[in-house]
Amino acid sequence: MFLVVGLGNPGKEYAQNRHNVGFMAADTIFRRYSFNDFKTKANALLAEGIIGKEKILLLKPQTYMNLSGNAVGEIAHFYKIEPSHILVFHDDLDLKPGIVRIKTGGSAGGHNGLKSIDSHIGNMYTRVRIGIGHPGDKALVADYVLSDFSKAEKEQLEKILEILADNLDIFFEKGDSAYAQKVGDKIHGI
Questions:
Q1: What is the mean predicted confidence (pLDDT) over 24-36?
Q2: How far apart are CA 124 and CA 142, in angstroms?
């Protein structure tokens, strides 16, 4: 069993924000595959489904970003899912829009959602870092991540999220490097 997590902030006012790209990824995965309806559990929305040959739990923490680890930790412990079987989709300020990086382990890089997860389960889970760009000034970051994507950014992002979802079975079958290679090749072709 694998746990797939999308990070974001709950509430309609945040739904299209740059910081909610993880929720957008989770919603794309939910639509692409056969999942049961989301149910509330451990202060999160949780759906069960199958991707390829694997049973998947799809999680959207409802605790706001800086407490995401509470839900991730509780679900991981309850279902006895090791960090190596956890995949987290999140926004990344240090990557330009249109860039995706996939890796296992590493630092939280200043991302409060990842810091929270690290404090509950350690850092040896896989992260799908989805670039949102940087406003250029540290003082502008809070407003920037809580602002919506432009129309052009949103169109590009939707294509990227479809590629990430459509090729997710590769991660479960062959690991993060094979998934990163396949996704990178397809995104490069957009």
A1: 97
A2: 27
Residues belonging to the active site: 19
CB contact at 8 A, 8 and 19: yes
Residue 136: which domain range? Answer: 2-188
The total domain count for the chain is 1
Q: Find the CATH number of the domain harbouring 141.
A: 3.40.50.1470
Q: State how far the Cα of 178 lies from the Cα of 175, in Å rounded to an integer.
A: 6
Lookup: tokens for 130: 């989805």
pTM: 0.97
Residues paired with residue 128 on neighbouring β-strands, in sequence order: 89, 102
- Give the Cα-Cα-Cα angle 24, 30, 36 (nearest 5 degrees): 140
Q: Reply yes or no on whether the pLDDT at 190 is more than 90.
A: no
